[in-house]
Queue: 2 jobs
Job 1
Amino acid sequence: MEKTFAIIKPDAVSKGYTGEIISRIEKKGFKISAMKKIKMDKKTAESFYAVHKEKPFFEALTTFMSSGPAVVMVLEKENAIAEWRELMGATNPEDAEENTLRKDFGKNIDNNAVHGSDAPETADIETRFFFADIECV
Ligand code: UDP
């Protein structure tokens, strides 16, 4: 079994999509190993997205990610990293395929509803950023 780290971003939480997104996650066969609602401050969002520090969208991204509550999760499944990215859809909801979360719940590339790790190392780093071992069942 592989684990990946996921976020239901502030846009989706504030619009009341949390339950529907969790339901879609479970229907796809992911086991939720850890989950909690958090509110990042700006510094925490900057630290989480440090890899994008030099990108033109860094300021907007970290302001958005610290704008309200988000739900952080660890998802477990065979091939979880790739399968979660498939369920999320393309970064830009306009390019996302039918029946993906970003197509159904994302508004635009800045407000794209969900986050997912892109590799095992980042999944581990991102999980440890938010969760203690005791929280991952
Ligand atoms: N992002 C953005 N503008 C861009 C590119 C990315 O606001 O032009 C945001 C978007 O929310 C995306 C996040 O930065 O989800 C991280 O970008 P990445 O390229 O890692 O995309 P992802 O892995 O989330 O699909």
Job 2
Amino acid sequence: MARPARATRLAVLISGGGSNLRALLEAIAADPRFGGEVVVVGTDRSDAGGLHSARAAGIPTVVEVLERGADRAAWEDRLAGRLAEHDVEVVVLAGFMRILSGRFLARWPDRVVNTHPSLLPAFRGAHAVREALDHGVAVTGCTVHLVDEEVDHGPILAQEAVPVLDGDTEETLHDRIKAVEHRLLPACVALLCHDRVRIEGRRVRILPADPANDRDHDREPTPGRGPGPEPAPGSEEHP
Ligand code: GRF
């Protein structure tokens, strides 16, 4: 018998413009079977542009600014506590520029996901697009991964390449990378909502959609692999 539909409760953490937040909200709005809903948007910056989008969508917001010299652990505990008040099940880092400790991550084991604008493990850190450009790479891209205690390091859910074009600036390249993130991040969040992600060491296995689960999609693109038919059960594994 099909399980009753119940949306997984998502928190989205942002520090900037929030285009990935908007892409996630649009993906959820466009797909009644997405399987998740954003129940709270949190930020460390009171001027984060994405806050407007959250408020416009009627989503509760949490602003926890980390003041210079403040107790970082206490700040993180406050942030986690305020998310937990919303019974959050999955935390989505969408341009959140703070490193989260193991203490925070332990509250949502393997349920904190991040998008990063490079093909990890290349160009970790806050200046990935500029560093890729400065390095002269011909191809960069984006990575959606689960978060562990190391920066931009956890198991990889999906990656997609973006070519560097002649005349690219950090801004033009980042815009094209973001266009891919806007598709890849929601696809990965949907997989988490449908409990289709299994972690085996550093490797991630994506379970096939369960036709008996009415939250699952019958047919959907596998993130990072492009659209296509469902793989045979057990055959799907990300490199
Ligand atoms: C994204 O490129 C993300 O990978 C990086 O920060 C950017 C956030 O953009 N961590 P936005 O705020 O979602 O527009």
